[in-house]
Amino acid sequence: MIGNITGHLAGAAAAWAAFVVEGAVFYVGLLVYAMVADTGTGGPLAGPLLVLLAGVLGVGLVPLLFVPASIAGQVAAKNGRLLVKLLIALAVAAVLAAIYVAVVAVATDVPIADAVLACLGGVVAVLIPTAVYVSAAHGVLKIMPVRRSSASI
């Protein structure tokens, strides 16, 4: 039980960190594009604000997306195989991300073509943090020793 909780806490922290790193990488990509296209770079606070936004969004996505996806993968792979956990978790995370982005798109009256592109972007954005979450949780479960209660001996 303790190993399971510890695994999920480690996975949550790793997924959040991966999401923040994605925000920084996304900013660098936008900065390179702005320099190549000779447009405005967004000012000196654009990068830190984008990373801060990714951090805040990551805090919300951990309990709403990464934890359910990881738990679904863990339940589906009772034998503990990482590949099965990973595939199930990635599928669940992709579906949840698409649903969340579609709900926001409908609530903000986004055109359908833009909503579909946003859904695809949301799906791509959660794949790496989900994989990091599942891998970290799986690694902690492998490292933690299995403790048996005295009643089962």
Automatic annotation (TrEMBL):
Alphabetical UniProt keywords: Membrane, Transmembrane, Transmembrane helix
- Transmembrane domains' residue ranges: 12-36, 48-71, 83-103, 115-141
Q: Is Transmembrane set as a keyword in this record?
A: yes
Which named protein is this?
Answer: Uncharacterized protein
